[in-house]
């Protein structure tokens, strides 16, 4: 098993809360991680029809087997679990007693917030981050090869072609999760919506346009984008919320959490095709935004990531607060730092000159160095750089 960065956060929360939850997309490694970190606890999958039937027919008998705790996988499949756990942990608040995992955020977190408020530590496990993959392994992959592969664990630990894996993943996701959540009858419309979203990766979210091109109502499009977000397929990056006296863009930007999935949905099946694709820059942005998101979640922090754009064209691709100051980040997919890149990096901090830290320029090359007041960071160096500077 490749060590996961979330491990330390899980252990910390298990020392404080009687229940710890692990949410995240399907196939992100939740089951493997929970069993590795808590090997002494009984493991129960509520996807198992026999276990779920036992739980539904005789909940007290089912739970009596786990007086000392357990790992409950895919817990949203039995929503009543959370109410029963409330009573059990109120009687015995031993830290780390129950570990609860689930892929579908609506079902899992709805039960948690209703029944286990104040009793549960919540974590999110996304696919592999760059820091979880060895430097030696990453050196063998070009940036385009890495982007078309994506970060789901199976694509780096098993002998499977990305195009085959993603085809199965999307079919499973659409047929199971979407049917369960939305009761969508016309799955082809949802699949079209999903591909249209991939085509707008890195752009401002425009639900009216998406709805019109999909052939559904604005209300339906809003529900669908909410489901994509809740199941960790996309992330909506909000604009920075403080007003510096300028007219701001108010819509979020749409990013796919896994760049490999976005590539597959766009029909990009090879590194060669990606290298000349017009959306390559936006897809690289998606990779970088996702890396920062994973870093925050693995540390047990909220996302708190933003972008900035005003109506005069002043823009910052990625932004976060560091104590009382702002860290601006410009993202460029090219492999060489040019003078235009440096200029863009400087512009990224001009919306708030007095409050901005030295701008970072994350690019598709290998070296990291300072140039003309801008810190250039090669894509493979992101894990070390974030660890040193995003505290």
TrEMBL record:
<protein>
    <submittedName>
        <fullName>ATPase (AAA+ superfamily)-like protein</fullName>
    </submittedName>
</protein>
<dbReference type="InterPro" id="IPR027417">
    <property type="entry name" value="P-loop_NTPase"/>
</dbReference>
<dbReference type="InterPro" id="IPR041682">
    <property type="entry name" value="AAA_14"/>
</dbReference>
<dbReference type="Pfam" id="PF13173">
    <property type="entry name" value="AAA_14"/>
</dbReference>
<dbReference type="Pfam" id="PF13635">
    <property type="entry name" value="DUF4143"/>
</dbReference>
<feature type="domain" description="DUF4143">
    <location>
        <begin position="175"/>
        <end position="334"/>
    </location>
</feature>
<dbReference type="InterPro" id="IPR025420">
    <property type="entry name" value="DUF4143"/>
</dbReference>
<feature type="domain" description="AAA">
    <location>
        <begin position="17"/>
        <end position="133"/>
    </location>
</feature>
């Amino acid at each position: 098993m490749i060590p996961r960065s979330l491990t330390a956060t899980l252990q910390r929360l298990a020392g404080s809360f009687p229940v710890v939850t692990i949410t995240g997309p399907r196939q992100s490694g939740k089951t493997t991680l929970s069993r590795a970190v808590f090997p002494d606890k009984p493991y129960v999958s509520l996807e198992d029809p026999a276990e779920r039937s036992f739980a539904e027919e005789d909940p007290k008998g089912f739970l009596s087997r786990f007086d000392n705790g357990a790992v409950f996988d895919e817990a949203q499949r039995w929503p009543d679990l959370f109410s029963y756990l409330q009573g059990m942990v109120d009687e015995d608040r031993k830290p780390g007693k129950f570990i609860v995992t689930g892929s579908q955020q609506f079902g899992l977190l709805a039960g948690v917030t209703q029944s286990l408020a104040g009793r549960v530590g919540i974590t999110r496990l996304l696919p592999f981050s760059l820091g979880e993959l060895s430097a030696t392994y990453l050196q063998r992959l070009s940036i385009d090869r890495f982007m078309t592969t994506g970060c789901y664990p199976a694509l780096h630990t098993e002998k499977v072609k990305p195009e085959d894996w993603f085809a199965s993943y999307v079919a499973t996701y659409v047929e199971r999760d979407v049917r369960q959540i939305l009761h969508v009858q016309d799955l082809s419309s949802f699949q079209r919506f999903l591909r249209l979203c991939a085509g707008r990766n890195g752009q401002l979210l425009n639900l009216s346009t998406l709805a019109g091109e999909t052939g559904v109502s604005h209300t339906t499009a809003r529900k669908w984008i909410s489901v994509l977000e809740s199941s960790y397929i996309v992330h909506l990056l909000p604009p920075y919320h403080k007003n510096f006296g300028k007219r701001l863009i108010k819509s979020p930007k749409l990013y796919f959490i896994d760049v490999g999935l976005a590539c597959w949905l766009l029909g990009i099946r090879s590194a060669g095709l990606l290298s000349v694709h017009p959306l390559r820059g936006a897809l690289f942005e998606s990779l970088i935004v996702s890396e920062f998101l994973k870093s925050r979640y693995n540390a047990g922090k909220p996302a708190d990531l933003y972008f900035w754009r005003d109506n005069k064209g002043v823009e910052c691709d990625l932004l976060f607060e560091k104590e009382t100051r702002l860290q601006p980040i410009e993202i460029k997919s090219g492999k060489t730092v040019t003078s235009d890149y440096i200029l863009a990096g400087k512009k990224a901090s001009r919306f708030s000159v007095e409050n901005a830290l030295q701008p970072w320029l994350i690019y598709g090359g290998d070296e990291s160095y300072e140039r003309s007041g801008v810190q250039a960071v090669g894509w493979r160096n992101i894990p070390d750089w974030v660890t040193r500077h995003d505290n």
